Amino acid sequence: MSQIAREAGVADGTIYLYFKNKDDILVQFFQYKTKQVFNGFREEVKKADTAVGKLRNLVYRHLTEFQSDRNMAVVYQSFAHHRNALVEGNIREMSKMYLDIVSEILELGQQEGSMRKDMYVGLVKRFILGAVESTINNWLLSRKEYDLASMAEPLIDLFIRGIGVPGTPPQNKV
Amino acid sequence: MSQIAREAGVADGTIYLYFKNKDDILVQFFQYKTKQVFNGFREEVKKADTAVGKLRNLVYRHLTEFQSDRNMAVVYQSFAHHRNALVEGNIREMSKMYLDIVSEILELGQQEGSMRKDMYVGLVKRFILGAVESTINNWLLSRKEYDLASMAEPLIDLFIRGIGVPGTPPQNKV
Lengths: 174, 174
Known about the structure:
- Two copies of one chain form a homodimer.
- The first copy, chain A, is elongated and about 70 Å long.
- By secondary structure, chain A is mainly α.
- In chain A, α4 packs antiparallel against α8.
- The first copy, chain A, contains eight helices and no strands.
- The first copy, chain A, is 74% helix and 0% strand.
- Chain A has helices at residues 2-8, 12-18, 22-47, 51-68, 70-81, 85-112, 121-141, 152-161.
- At the A-B interface, α4, α7 and α8 of A face α4, α7 and α8 of B.
């Protein structure tokens, strides 16, 4: 804690006014960062008028945020390796907030008529989050050799259009 | 090791003929299990004639395998929590094998005309693997309250059709 206080340029005593211990610093940092990131997501989503536009902005912002914040990548990787009871609750909360934003977008899309009414929204929203997280993970494993944000458009394209050729007759279970 | 030998009903000395130590048992088990699982995947894929059928069989088999093998779930969860240098190479190899099987199916689909020629196969195959893993993960976190294999059809539907309504005018970046 003393070292942290030194780095921050404050007296030891001052640090303890705000944080109980090092774990507390981590938890508070996470909560602060989460609030910041999600405000950013909601802002980006508001900027678009259509459901697809909103989804695109959200995913693009998500990837850009990750790519530009080296610290986030380091922290993310450390939690990928070791589960941490301290921040698990926080991570669950973040997932729920993300899923709520995506849910709203999907429901808007259904109202607009741009997205299918016969989709399983519960599955699709998790599918979208899983695909974005998987993209980030692959980028980290590839040692960040390409522009992560450039994956946003291909992802959106996959979500919206799928991989099938429209008009192909349904192919039943073999 | 003695305890393991006892459980297996063999003498201590016999165990050491096959395994150097406990770590070695784990590694060999993984290699054996991987071979078994992937032979099963390839068999299922062969049973279908069309690309979509093959993809469906693969995903269905993947989810069924996971749901029916309690041990696999336990092992999987333990590696999700702590990275293990011993099996990391094995896990990378498994991912590569899975991606290769999916690649072949996507290329077949493109040849058949049932899947888009303008898709990024490199991204799509990882997207598909990521979505299936994410589905398994969510199922584990939900404490397995529903039938995992029943997620295969909705997943395939999402991959093939996407969530957009065909014929909606392209919605550009806002």
